[in-house]
Amino acid sequence: MKHAAFATDTTAYMPAVPARISTAHLSALGLDLVNATQTQAIAALLAPGRRRAYFMNAHCCNIRRRDTAYAQAVATADMLLPDGIGVELAGRMTGKRLAANLNGTDLVPALLAQAASMGKSVYLFGGTPGTAQAAANRLVNTIPDLRIAGTRDGFAGAADTDAVIHDINDSGADIVLVALGVPMQELWLHANAHRIDAPLTLAVGALFDFLAGTVVRAPKAVRRARLEWVWRLAQEPRRMAKRYLAGNASFLAHAGIKALRHLPVADVQRRFLDVTVAGSALVLLSPLLALTALAIKADSRGPVLFSQTRVGRDGKEFRIFKFRSMTTDAETRRDALLASSDREGVCFKSRHDPRVTRVGRFIRRFSIDELPQILNVLRGEMAIVGPRPALPCEVAAYPARALGRLAVKPGITGVWQVSGRATIGFDQMVEMDLSYADSRTLMLDLILILKTFGAVTSGRGAY
């Protein structure tokens, strides 16, 4: 697709050497995306030097595949910021976890608050007539020290490019927000950023509409669940159906195919095994899961599921799911019980732990409490077979050699689990896990899965 109106010589635009910030190459997308917290990203954007930044979501990636001009504009940006659950999932397909969802609706107001404290000003360009000014008014109300250098709409106000650039430069703005919609805003900046004096230019999509209140943003609970796209679809079903229904399916399909091409065959086979076993178990064991939930609820007060931070592959933390087998104050009582551990080494385990409930003792005996970890497997945080997932405090106390067990995903079952569980000392467990990490094969995983049934039936080491 050609956009001749934006063709220009961009050699005069000399991108700054980007501020020191981590990036992650997502092979499933063929993009290098900023891999940082919001605070780190803002610091990099506002650091001395010139830079042009775009936000990349699933819709942007779909357009990039079919629009060569837009793909070129993306390729020449100084910073690409990950936006939305789709991009996050694309990263997970090849084992990459991004530090944060850096969507423009959340990041830009925070960036402007920091910019205001530094005495910087902002120019808003784009949107329907009146929208940029309404957005500016909202920003000033929420960030009193922010200086608005100027505003201009994206319709009649965008007709004369030379006039737009003259107005921006004459305003003395330090930051320029361009909201012309994807891909027009990126193409406009690609063609004209070298003519703009402001050191920071950003393409911000529908930000002005959200700030002006012409589009209502999803409630916080919906945003936390990463379902904001569903909210947008419900608001504008006709306009958004193609983007979010067909578009998201197309994006995930292309990302998945590309991710498979970059993964070793053994990794693809192992992931297929994980998804197949976990998915089948979720369906076949659903009656048992339901009965367990009812038993826990009837036995003691508190939630059915227990969630806790554990350390996964390469030291990345995640939230593990288990059926609650202890009292609700178990975490606060743990330190007082460390001396009663029946197990040598770092990992605490007590056969007569007073925190365990009546139902808890039964579900631990047959490892039923571990079944919700099927969800962790489907999410890609765990595998069916692998080392026991450790607590952060345990990893902090690891000797150097034990850190080698973090080279693979933790598992629901594994060598340690089928060899006696809590009867195995810490040092011996580490050696088992290191041996597995060095010699694991698909056949070994299948053998360990089969041996798990015998280990569960015997109940050896389960308490």
From TrEMBL:
Record domain Bacterial sugar transferase: where: 270-456
GO molecular function, one term: phosphotransferase activity, for other substituted phosphate groups
InterPro entries listed in its UniProt record: Bact_transf (IPR003362), WecG_TagA_CpsF (IPR004629)
Protein name according to UniProt: UDP-phosphate galactose phosphotransferase
Record-stated family: Belongs to the bacterial sugar transferase family.
GO terms for biological process, alphabetical: polysaccharide biosynthetic process
Keywords from the UniProt entry: Exopolysaccharide synthesis, Transferase
PANTHER family: COLANIC BIOSYNTHESIS UDP-GLUCOSE LIPID CARRIER TRANSFERASE, SLL5057 PROTEIN
Domain of life: Bacteria
